[in-house]
Amino acid sequence: MTDSINTQEPKFEIHIPDVIAHRGFSAENPENTLISYENAVKAGTSALEGDIRLSKDNEIVMMHDLTLNRTSTGLGPVRNQNWHGYIDGITTKAEPAQPIPRFNDVLDFLIRPEISEGRKGLYMIVDIKANVLKQLLDTYTETYPQLFDQLIIGIWNVEYLNKAKELFSKFKLCFIGLSVSAARTHFIDSVDFLSLPFAALAGHDGQLIIKEAHAKQKRVLTWTINDPLQMKTCVLWHVDGVIGDNVTVMLKNVHHVPKSLATKEEYQEFVNTDTYLASKRRRAYYYIVTKVMQLASWKVVGV
Fold it and tell me: Which residues does the UniProt record annotate as the domain GP-PDE (predicted)?
């Protein structure tokens, strides 16, 4: 009796990253607004990302910039304006005009039964733009303890890292930064995620940090990815999450296309058509950008 011949197609390994909605579905909605987050979840995103700042009356406001000027009908630094009586009355400049939400409003959305029960595994990265850690802790512990496993605290510098480790000892932390060397020297052993721009990962050192992070059971995210060719490159880098503005485009190129590869030949064709960094000019551009980002990281956050 002879052994049966195995006619199955040889296996190949492909890593499917999470799709992370940058400030919500911001390609089609005003950034950091409830409608942007709601539509990102409806579209099928794996996770959300958003920015928070503190108002003069100590409300945690969804806002990326230091000031209200770019994205809203308000004026001045967020920290110099009260939420009650001012920020609560302004709207986004982008259409459809939306109110500026507080972080509490976004958390209220996340605990809706259709979200908390229907979208298991959905998480949110909270990009802290100012020292709001104490207010953030109070918000979590007093009102939203059920979200402990879903909220990931984004940290930019070592000072905030030390405070976050002290205040949020049971929470997942994410280094969000520009420099691979800063990630490696100061953060990789203390956080659960490394979030770095595409340019920082494009070179040899960037590829090494992905492998080093995975060896330490850490996850690597990259931003802000809106070009489908970049998305393919990210998939082949084996990053764990791709952060971008257009959820629909990301889902197609980061999830659906890689998952549709059925044979080793199809996978090889997918690899062969990864051309985003084929140009010497583009590689040189990213090399220069990386050096500038390293300098900016040192000047701005001291790492």
Answer: 17-254
In this structure, what token pair is assigned to residue 89?
Answer: 């009355």
Q: Using the 8-state DSSP alphabet, how is residue 102 labeled?
A: B
Residue pLDDT, tens place only, 121-148: 999 999 987 778 888 888 888 888 888 8
71: tokens are 């994205």
Name beta bridge partners: 51: 127
Query: For residue 193, how many other CB atoms are within 10 A of its CB?
Result: 22
Instruction: Indicate the residue type of 121.
Output: G
* Amino acid present at 56: K
Report the C-alpha gap between 293 and 138 in whole angstroms: 34
Question: What pLDDT digit, counting tens, does each position of 225-270 carry?
Answer: 999 999 999 999 999 999 999 999 999 999 999 999 999 999 999 9
Residues of the chain with pLDDT > 90, as a percent, come to 77
Separation of alpha carbons 240 and 212, rounded Å = 13
Kindly compute the dihedral angle of the four CA atoms of residues 54, 60, 63, 65, in this order, to the nearest 10 degrees: 10
3-state secondary structure of 100: coil
3-state secondary structure of 219: strand
